[in-house]
Amino acid sequence: MRTSIRTIMLASTCLAAILLIGNLGSPAFAAGQTASEPLSKTYRVTRANDVEFQKVEPFKVFDNLYYVGPGYVSVWLLTTPEGNILFDSAQEPYVDFVIDNIRKVGVDPKSIKYIILSHGHLDHFGGAAKIQEASDARVIAVEEDWKMIEQVGSRPGAAGGPPPRVPKRDMVVKEGDTLALGGQTLKFHQTPGHTPGVLTTEGITVYDRGTPYKAIVWGGAGYRGGLAEAEQSVRSANKVAQIQGVQVNLQIHSWAEDSGYPGGGVLERGIMLKSRKPGDPHPFVDPATFTQWVKRAQDGAAKAVQEEKQKAGR
Ligand SMILES: [Zn+2]
């Protein structure tokens, strides 16, 4: 499975410059892309501030799931017969672009019932207030990260400008809570470390031509310094490892730290999906890579604890 995905990846990289113009609507890609760099990294890292470049075409990933974000940070739209759910909201200057993308895939923003925030960093929640206004959706986050969001909203913004618009505290969820809508029963976990209130959502059912698969949104894994945070990351990674049967990892960024998500990030898999032949496996259904990824996070967090302890012992 992994080998075949890698092979497709290599082939995709060669074709990417041609395909992308049609697939993601970014003709600038051909000029800026180097053969040695994965596409997702170009979006997340190298050209992270290139606003026009970031405006990738939204795409359908499953029967009931769309990618509607800019290139560097994910926004996932899950549709149900009783209303729709958005995972993360991106940030300015991309919020109108995200709302337009929702319309482009045929969904009325007013039909969004919930916006689930993975964690309290602006690139994930910065669009929530405006999208809530356009939809009357309830905004969901964990207590600790509602506090972070409120702090961000009370401090001057970039370059001393006004504070960014933040959503008002709305729904607070905690470990083990569930959310039922239109045949979905989502289950929430608190997986702190990256921030104090990272929210992981499991139990998302996506359909590929009618076949159901179990998807997860792991709300943020990489710790950002500190022994307590590293220790939290170990417990959180262990908690995610306990979640059984995950087949689809809905990554919150196109590019994951270090060497990227094995077998391709969101955008690479999006290209594979576009050229998928009848009978081919769905490129986002990849439980083996998810298992491997969780193990890597467990190892990485354990190593971080050791390093933090060494630092403290100095
Ligand atoms: Zn973050």
Summarize the structure.
With 314 residues, the chain is an alpha/beta fold. 40% of the residues lie in helices and 18% in strands.
Radius of gyration: 19 Å
CATH fold naming: Metallo-beta-lactamase, Chain A
Ligands bound here?
A: zinc ion
Give the number of helices. Answer: 11
Specify the helix fraction band.
25-40%
**What does the largest sheet look like?**
7 strands, mixed
CATH superfamily: Ribonuclease Z/Hydroxyacylglutathione hydrolase-like
Order of helices and strands: HHHHEEEEHEHHEHEEEEEHEHH
Widest β-sheet, arrangement of strands: 1-2-3-4-5-6-7
CATH class: Alpha Beta
**Count of structural domains:** 1
Which CATH architecture would you pick? 4-Layer Sandwich
Helix/strand/pairing class, anyone?
alpha/beta
Question: What do you see in this structure?
Answer:
- The chain is an alpha/beta fold and 314 residues long.
- The protein has one domain: Ribonuclease Z/Hydroxyacylglutathione hydrolase-like (Metallo-beta-lactamase, Chain A).
- It is 40% helix and 18% strand.
- It has eleven helices and twelve strands.
- The chain has helices at 2-23, 28-32, 39-46, 51-54, 95-104, 122-125, 128-135, 143-154, 227-242, 266-274, 287-313, and strands at 59-62, 65-67, 76-78, 84-87, 112-116, 138-142, 171-173, 178-181, 184-190, 199-208, 211-217, 248-249.
- The strands form two sheets. A seven-stranded mixed sheet has the order 1-2-3-4-5-6-7.
- A hairpin with a 2-residue loop joins strand 8 (178-181) and strand 9 (184-190).
- The N and C termini lie far apart (45 Å).
- The model is unreliable at 1-32 (pLDDT under 50).
- The structure holds zinc ion.
- Zinc ion (ZN) is lined by residues 119, 121, 194, 220.
